[in-house]
Amino acid sequence: MDGHEQLISIPADDSAYRRRRDEVAALATAFVRGDVIPEVEYTDAEHAVWRLVAERLRDRHRSHAAREFLEAAEQFGVGVEGIPQLQDVSDRLDGLTGFRVQPAAGVVPFYRFCGSLADGYFHSTQYIRDGATPFHSAEPDVLHEVIGHGSALADNRFASLYRLAGEAVQRVETEAAVQFISKVFWFTIECGLLDAPDGPRAYGASIVSSYGELDQFRSAEIRRLTIANMAGTSYDITRYQETLYSARSLAHLEDVVGGFWESCDDASIDRILAAAK
Question: How far, CA to CA in Å, does 159 sit from each of 56, 72, 76, 126, 176?
């Protein structure tokens, strides 16, 4: 999620935004895989929010985003001129990595959201954040989904990690195992960093889609990437992250996190959790 102030909140007087969000979200409720994704008639004001935030993010990405993310975003080619339709995004990703987009009315339970990744489907909202607070959102919106996750999903190596996370969720049975996979997903796919000569750079969707957190993430406690260490680390999705994990390289991320998701099961996760107590 995004943030300009460190504590994320929805404005008190947001009734108009909520009505519009619910109107757009309703388009997703009847969607069936294989259908054409319904188009949203975005307003000029909504396109203006996209332009403002997308341009600011593009500037921050040059100095704060990982090279691998920048290359994926360039290949993805999403513009800053206005909000893209999800069907166009889906067609573009399908041609690049085989991923397709499924519209979501709002937050999707992690088990269903992540499990769909194994089948090559990414759940994405279509509404955009409140224009009164363009640099933060208390919930996922199309900026976060497309610029953050969509860019990563345009690269085969990142897309493979998403699929492995989905396969891991489909494989385990206990709630504790699902929650731990969710935690690893948070610290990597959502908030992950990669080492670079000038200091850690972000690839995680939550950070690269957050104008505010891109300026702040290097102030966090940045730890070496280990799965076991994550078991004892707490996090709060409503604040800028106080603890982040940086991989030495994308290959290191693939070895550690991809390897974990590829082989983990309920028993192995139980052992990790027990050792963290």
Answer: 25, 10, 12, 21, 25
Given the residues 46, 68, 145, 190, the one annotated as active site: 190
Query: Can you say whether the dihedral through the CA atoms of 271, 273, 276, 277 is positive or negative?
Result: negative
The percent of residues in the chain predicted with pLDDT above 90, rounded, is 88
In whole angstroms, what is the distance from residue 204 CA to residue 214 CA? 11
Q: What is the pLDDT of residues 7-57, one digit of tens each?
A: 233 444 588 999 999 999 999 998 999 999 999 999 999 999 999 999 999
- Three-class SS of 10-54: CCCCCHHHHHHHHHHHHHHCCCCCCCCCCCCCCCHHHHHHHHHHH
Helices (H), the chain: 15-25, 44-64, 67-76, 86-97, 110-118, 142-143, 151-153, 156-171, 175-185, 205-208, 211-216, 227-231, 250-253, 259-263, 266-276
Among residues 151, 209, 210, 246, the one annotated as catalytic is: 209
pTM of the model: 0.93
Q: List all residues 6 or more positions away from 93 whose beta carbon is below 8 Å from its beta carbon.
A: 76, 99, 100, 101, 122, 150, 153, 154
Clarify whether 190 is annotated catalytic.
yes
Is 209 labeled as catalytic in the residue annotation? yes
Annotated catalytic residue, options 46, 144, 213, 246: 144
**Residue of 149, 206, 210, 246 marked catalytic:** 149
Tell whether the model's pLDDT for residue 275 goes beyond 80: yes
